């Protein structure tokens, strides 16, 4: 099936998973607004944030018909939040589905760049590691972990994608329909690796476009030792384990 042009596309849904993003979510929704067209939607997926993020998102949605809020009962990890959001977006008729962080580490000004590239590919990744991309404000240890994680994933999975751990993505509907979402096993940042790998394995085209990744605008990072450990063993399992793509 040919990739539709932007002029012909159906609704875009932007998925924003949140946990304690009270200080960011309002500004992020406001920044995204001018980049959306009639019929596009923003879906906030909140994992019962104790800081009131979900309640604030509800308040915004009450005044902005393009915003919808999905409340989850507990913090279960990034992967399950996105999967739940993807299912709601697909059921809602989304044509393109963008996933991005709500904390401004993914600059909403790059959204038009991803959408433009979606005319050429089934999955577009906002990449830190292609020419023109980069990272600001990170220390040496975190830079090494990020680059090393992408290199590790790329080597084990046999792909040439430079930013396998990148989380700013634009999926065509057909990609998410082809991926058995209930079989996606990763819950932390290895979820980003698994979704890209499954898309490639299913035969979809992938393009990386350069972005500059910035430190979050407010709040605390969700990175932890457990997330790194999960990625270390789940990446090989994606290729050799029982849940590997068929």
How many domain modules?
1
Could you spell the SSE succession in H and E letters? EHEHEHEHEEHEHHEEH
CATH superfamily (homologous) name: Spore Coat Polysaccharide Biosynthesis Protein SpsA, Chain A
CATH class call: Alpha Beta
Q: Strand order across the biggest sheet?
A: 3-2-1-4-7-5-8
CATH topology: Spore Coat Polysaccharide Biosynthesis Protein SpsA, Chain A
The CATH architecture: Alpha-Beta Complex
Based on secondary structure, the structural category is: alpha/beta
C-alpha end-to-end distance: 21 Å
Average pLDDT: 88
Structure commentary:
The chain is α/β, with parallel strands linked by helices. It has a single domain, classed as Spore Coat Polysaccharide Biosynthesis Protein SpsA, Chain A. The protein is 39% helix and 16% strand. It contains eight helices and nine strands. The chain has helices spanning 22-32, 53-63, 78-91, 111-117, 140-157, 173-178, 190-201, 225-240; strands at residues 12-18, 41-46, 67-71, 96-99, 123-127, 134-135, 169-172, 206-210, 212-213. The strands form two sheets. A seven-stranded mixed β-sheet has the order 3-2-1-4-7-5-8, with helices on both faces. The longest helix has 18 residues, at 140-157. The protein is globular, with a radius of gyration of 17 Å. The mean pLDDT is 88.
Q: In terms of topology, how is this protein built?
A:
Layout: E1 12-18, H1 22-32, E2 41-46, H2 53-63, E3 67-71, H3 78-91, E4 96-99, H4 111-117, E5 123-127, E6 134-135, H5 140-157, E7 169-172, H6 173-178, H7 190-201, E8 206-210, E9 212-213, H8 225-240
Parallel strand pairs: 1-2, 1-4, 2-3, 5-8, 6-9
Antiparallel strand pairs: 4-7, 5-7
């Amino acid at each position: 099936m040919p990739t539709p042009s932007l002029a012909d596309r159906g609704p875009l849904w932007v998925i924003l998973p949140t946990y304690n993003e009270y200080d960011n979510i309002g500004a992020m929704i406001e920044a995204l607004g001018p980049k959306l067209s009639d019929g596009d939607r923003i879906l906030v997926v909140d994992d019962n944030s104790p800081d009131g993020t979900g309640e604030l998102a509800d308040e915004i949605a009450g005044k902005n018909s393009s915003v919808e809020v999905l409340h989850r009962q507990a913090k279960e990890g990034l992967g399950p939040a996105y999967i739940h959001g993807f299912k709601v977006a697909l059921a809602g008729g989304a044509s393109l589905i963008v996933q991005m962080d709500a904390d401004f580490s993914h600059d909403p000004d790059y959204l038009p760049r991803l959408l433009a590239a979606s005319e050429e590919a089934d999955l577009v990744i906002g990449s830190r590691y292609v020419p023109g991309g980069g990272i600001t404000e990170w220390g040496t240890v975190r830079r090494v972990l990020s680059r090393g994680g992408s290199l590790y994933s790329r080597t084990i999975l046999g792909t040439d994608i430079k930013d396998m751990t990148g989380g700013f993505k634009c999926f065509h509907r057909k990609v998410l329909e082809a991926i058995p979402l209930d079989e996606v096993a990763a819950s932390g940042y290895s979820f980003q690796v698994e979704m890209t790998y499954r898309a490639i394995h299913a035969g979809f085209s992938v393009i990386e476009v350069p972005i500059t990744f910035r430190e979050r605008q407010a709040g605390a990072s969700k990175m932890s030792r457990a997330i790194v450990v999960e990625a270390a063993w789940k990446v090989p399992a994606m290729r050799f384990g029982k849940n590997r793509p068929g």
